[in-house]
Please model this.
Amino acid sequence: MRGIRILLLCSIAAAATYSLAADMTVPQRAVAGDKISIETSGNGEATAVLIAPSHIVSKPVVLGKALEFAGDDLADAGQYTLLLTSNDGEIAKNFVVSPGSPAHLSFVTHPSRAPVAQKAGITGAVYVFDAYNNLISKSLIVNFKLSGAQAGTVERQVSSRNGVASVSLDSPAREGPVKFEATTGGVQTTRMVRVVADEPCTLEIRAEPLNKGRIRVQTAPVKDCSGNLVPDGTVVTFTGWDEQGRSTVDVSVKKGIAQVDLPARGEMRISAASGVALGKQIRLRATP
Amino acid sequence: MIPFRPACTKFAMLLCMILAGASAVCGPSVELSAKGAGPREMEPTLQQSIPRDYVKAWQLLSTALDAGNPELLDQYWVGIARDKFQRLIRDEARTGIEVHYQNISHKLQAVFYPTDGAALLLYDDVQLEMQVKQSTRVIHTEKTTARYLVLMTPAQDRWVVRLLQEVPLS
Model:
């Protein structure tokens, strides 16, 4: 009986002095922006230090109670190290935080002005980010859509790889502004691309004599091979040959037409060129 | 694969091997593989400048963390990456906890180089040592192999890091 009493007293004394070693249970995985609760064990007070890829959170903790982290504490995707420092020493545990769902897209398009009817003339690359600016590296379906009033609509579906989805689309045959949209996970971003006329395809010229030994040369509306008027500022080079020799003038297209007055004496030959287009040569006699 | 070892002659490399903290003397070793990057092919000059600029970015990050000076990041870090590491430096000052990274080696694999050449996406398998200090006392040390997804973009005379994000190794 006395032996049992001693044993009981020893057990009570041991229980009184025994303290659980500090420990904690971290989640294997979490998603950026999640609130998490980490169970701790042990007795007494400790300090928890959360080392995130690009921020640090430090807070006191009562061992045996849950340790709470807010959504902002888990803002970065990547590996986290949680340190628990108490009188028992230090323990460290790692866990991984993955990016959340798509929240915004970084949509890079090229070029901002694309010539008409170019094969793979418009490219776009989409980088998909969550609400905390983490690039979502897992594969996502991204829908690209190119549309304009006269250009019709072209759509492509591309799977992102390594956080990026890219596409190359033919530019429409008609000039004008087109909307270039990218959509994934309910998030959409739009860029505007201006489709502009290409180089002149053909040149037609006509000329008429003016007074005082001059003639006026004018092009027909200058168009690209898709039938669009070339932009203002496109240079047309007029060349004339007469008794005095050769004269050359560069003229900018205005509202689709280039026009110039040239000095002329007697029989005259005139031609025009712009880019790879060459106008048919014409002849006329200037009035004296 | 282009190995890059900044400012290391053979003699200096030997010295590095003898001296403790070799990587601190010579900088980490860097290898870049451009295979599989596309759709545009990486120019040879770019294959040289990327490892050089990337290592400088890491060196500046380390210096900025040690000095507690976020402005140092501006030379090689922009956008999201700069904002995030500026937060880390501010947190260090606020909490009194310092994180030191010693990067030992980088294996870069280019995965996306768009036709307009306006960005470069890479993976970096990096070996590094992390040391956590509180009031100059080391409270934690960890050697680790990590994989980062890196987005670099061209600036005036260099390529800068726009995104550096750890991703699972597998």
Q: What stands out?
A: Residues 6-18 of chain A have pLDDT under 50 and may be disordered. Helices of chain A lie at 2-17.
